[in-house]
Write a structure and sequence with these properties.
The chain is of the alpha+beta class. It has one domain: Glycosyltransferase. It is about 40% helix and about 15% strand. It has 14 helices and 19 strands. Strand 9 and strand 10 form a beta hairpin. Helix 1 crosses helix 14, helix 8 packs parallel to helix 10 and helix 10 runs parallel beside helix 12.
């Protein structure tokens, strides 16, 4: 998921060495018992979903069960970040043709948007096959509101945040084919337009022709941008993003701040991905302590020794386990040689794999995040559901394969 420097602003929020090489696994190690099965099981429903369609395709992000606002709003949603992550997981698992189908769907989405032609991607599209022969046919997802008698689209889904687009660049550059490289360069041109005095802003939210700017600056999204720009040889832009990320390091606490608020102040909230991803991307940069911060503030059971923790919450109220973030921590633990801890949390992920193969987004029916949808100003009403989640499977596969999306 892509954490902003300010508050979340949508009902739909699910979405991250400076010259890192494209997707690469750590040096080979003896296979531990849970890893091969977790990788196989995490990738299985992704493969199965791709098998239901031909050609370029975007995968639905959450399983839906036909009831309530969440299910209605997410009935056809394919988040850009989730799909790019799934492509990276497939590539790490040796499934290049399948990864290329997702990458091509994202490339076509960039080319065939019903309005934009400037290199951006929207945060989400309608799931399913993308038809190359249908120009200007790609649309954001939506739903029919019977009470109002109208078709609706969510403002976040229709908008363009920096982090999800950066993840598309990570997938395109990891594959490296010329059409994907051109798509990545077009995306980077648009992303460079988000430059702020410090780092890069969050992107846009809302519909064409004049979506609102997102003025916050996110630690995690700037990490994504630093790696994406570096992959393309845009060294100055990469350094600008990386410098911002490093400026958010709080050495006395051994962790990162989330970023800057829209007003320019430091957002000191505790974000799991903002702390783990820089340590994954820059393993020698002195950020390893961030894992212990995350375990102390987000680990469950609360107060347990780190070696007895089962998983991690999205925020520090610890009302349930966020499986996507737990998988990120598993990968970090493996990279630090903390294998027993990694295996314990991997077992938690495996327990939350549903009968249909999808790993649940949350261990409880509705997991609080401390973030708002924007529908009720000042209310932290964005929740993660106990629904199968494409990004949870993607990160679980990457953790099991000991492969980082950042190289």
């Amino acid at each position: 998921m892509n954490t902003p420097g300010g508050a979340r602003m949508s009902l739909s929020m699910p979405r991250r060495a400076l010259l890192a090489a494209p997707l690469a696994a750590a040096p080979a190690r003896a296979a531990a018992a849970p890893w091969a099965s977790l990788a196989r099981d995490a990738l299985a429903p992704i493969r199965a979903a791709l098998a239901t369609a031909e050609g370029p395709v975007l995968l639905k992000s959450f399983t839906t069960e036909g009831r309530g606002t969440f299910d209605r709003v997410h009935a056809e949603v394919a988040f850009t970040y989730d799909n790019a992550l799934a492509g990276l997981a497939l590539l790490a698992g040796g499934e290049r043709p399948l990864a290329s189908r997702i990458a091509e769907a994202l490339r076509l989405a960039q080319e065939q948007d019903r309005y934009w032609s400037d290199g951006r991607l929207r945060n989400a599209y309608a799931a399913g096959r993308i038809v190359p022969e249908a120009p200007r046919s790609v649309r954001p997802p939506g739903w029919w509101d019977a009470a109002r008698g109208m078709w609706l689209e969510d403002g976040y889904q229709a908008g363009s945040a920096a982090g999800p687009l950066a993840f598309a660049v990570l997938l395109w550059t990891a594959l490296g084919d010329p059409p994907f490289r051109r798509a990545a360069e077009r995306a980077a041109d648009w992303l460079e337009g988000l430059r702020a005095p410090a780092g890069f802003r969050g992107g846009t939210i809302g519909h064409e022709p004049a979506p609102d700017p997102l003025p916050w600056v996110s630690t995690e999204q700037n990490l994504d941008l630093a790696i994406a720009f570096a992959r393309l040889g845009r060294t100055e832009a990469a350094a600008h993003a990386a410098d911002f990320v490093r400026s958010m390091w709080l050495p006395a606490q051994g962790r990162f701040a989330m970023g800057l608020t829209p007003e320019g102040g430091v957002n000191g909230g505790s974000a799991l991905d903002a702390n783990l991803w820089p340590a994954l991307a820059w393993p020698g940069a002195g950020f390893r302590a961030a894992l212990d911060w995350v375990l102390t503030r987000h680990g469950l059971p609360a107060g347990a020794p780190s070696e007895e923790m089962e998983g991690l919450d999205f925020n520090d109220d610890r009302d349930g386990i966020w499986l996507e973030g737990t998988a990120q921590a598993v990968l970090m633990m493996r990279r630090l040689g903390r294998e027993a801890q990694a295996e314990r949390m991997a077992a938690t992920i495996a327990r939350h794999r549903r009968a249909d193969g999808w790993i649940a987004a949350a261990s409880v029916p509705w997991l609080t995040t401390g973030l708002g949808t924007g529908l009720r100003p000042g209310v932290a009403d964005f929740l993660y559901p106990a629904r199968g989640h494409l990004a949870a499977n993607g990160w679980a596969a990457l953790a099991a394969l000991d492969s980082s999306p950042f190289g």
